[in-house]
Amino acid sequence: MRERDITLRFLVAPTEVNVHGKVPGGVVLQWIDKAGYAVAVAWSGQYCVTAYVGNVMFQSDLTAGELVDVRARVISTGRSSMVVLAEVYGSDPRSQARWMVARCAMVMVGTDGKGRTVKVPSWEPQTEEDRKLRDDAQSLAHLRKAIDAKMAEASYTDAGSAPRLTLRFLARPTDVNFGGKVHGGTVMYWIDEAAEACAAGWINGHAIARYAGGVRFYQPMFIGDLVEVDARLLHTSGSQVHVSVQVRSGSPRTQDVRMTTQCLMILDALDDQGRITPVRPWIPQSEEDKALDEHAQALESLRGETGARELFR
Fold it and tell me: Are the beta carbons of 88 and 31 closer than 8 angstroms?
């Protein structure tokens, strides 16, 4: 029997929280990737890779000792792809009070383990809820293409004056799966760390992720690869900072790196007590700054226009 609905359950460990005692977005993204991989493999019977993660809305916080349920369901299939709905819930083990932490759709692709895609079993809806989710998943394909096209239009050069932070390191053996490739969840954890550090530098305080979108994986990374995680501030509004993150990787010998992953992160500014606080505005200076600021606002507008309301309620 093929499984299309899997739930991972565990307690938040003390090592998984930040300085405010809250689980950062990068850790939640790692959990989502693990659950998505588990259900994709269970359904397809194949080695699977993460191709896309979109519209991750971080709705509530988690602290150490709370119970976590990460539910992943296959809600649509293509020839080699599966759209997976991932939902993260928190609960108090004592009172059983339960709340939504994050929800998103992701695209997993079946492969032969050598990079070649393979056909996956078709899934057909059985209930009215299944049909609604499948229809939403299919409508997301248009949104993904629109977001990809919009993100491809953006130009990032050294001419910009926006706050920027780049992390550089080598991919370690502990970062990869049994196939020798870096986990998608690990890449998303790096993205969150770089975005948070970039935002924190601007606000001179702490920041926490509230949204991650347009996470497109272009090529795999391997043990020993040189990794660059480049975060750049694009836009500020109210308490929020919009940060674009690009991940590149390649040979440390040649220093020749290529785009691996890109993502847009939106983070809330926090005061010393961990409360959301207004952020000082960033004023674009150069023409590139102004173009990227408009780019961030266009992505925000595009995200709000999605017809897949059920997935993002």
Answer: yes
